[in-house]
Amino acid sequence: MPSSLQLHRISNIDPATTAAAATAAVNCHKQSQAPLTWATPVPDMLASYHAHAVGPNQCASVVVQTTAAPLQTVWSVVRRFDKPQAYKHFLKSCHVIFGDGDIGTLREVHVVSGLPAESSTERLEILDDERHVLSFSVVGGDHRLSNYRSVTTLHPSPAGTGTVVVESYVVDIPAGNTKEDTRVFVDTIVKCNLQSLAHMSENLTNNNRNNSS
Description:
This protein has 213 residues and is an alpha+beta fold. The chain is 26% helix and 29% strand. The chain is built from four helices and seven strands, in the order H-H-E-H-E-E-E-E-E-E-H. The chain has a seven-stranded antiparallel beta sheet with strand order 1-7-6-5-4-3-2. Residues 1-37 have low confidence and may be disordered.
């Protein structure tokens, strides 16, 4: 994996988004200030999906989240390209505007207030049910994250009792911001999303167990 893909401390990006990022940072547990390496091994066939080509005016990062929920339960949530707001709480709505869930499907998502965006048009690039890989790119909308591309992969935890979720991204650095500004802001969003995903998946697992008992 390229050394540029690292997990950094959650922080705010600029004064215009201080309140939103600060709230997210409190809710999502701040990370160590020093960059971290991979906490768990990632299978080679999945690690290659996270090797982004990063241009001179771009930044890239990766966030890793573990959950006690089984892989198939987590994947059932992640693979719903038409319903990202189920666990991405910074989104308030999503509408599929083209396609039926196959590669090339377009969705339009609307963002909650307090963030430097209103909407985003996103294209499904990869949906691999066998390897548990989902990727999308931002192709339009009213936001500051140009040329954003995200890859999410799932694999069993080393103990075999849960799931490891890895999400990486590459994005242009907005005018007026530094690479670090951009990275820590996007890391805030991604970290909160993945913690929400873990919590939701574990609740689904517990509900399924209760219903079957």
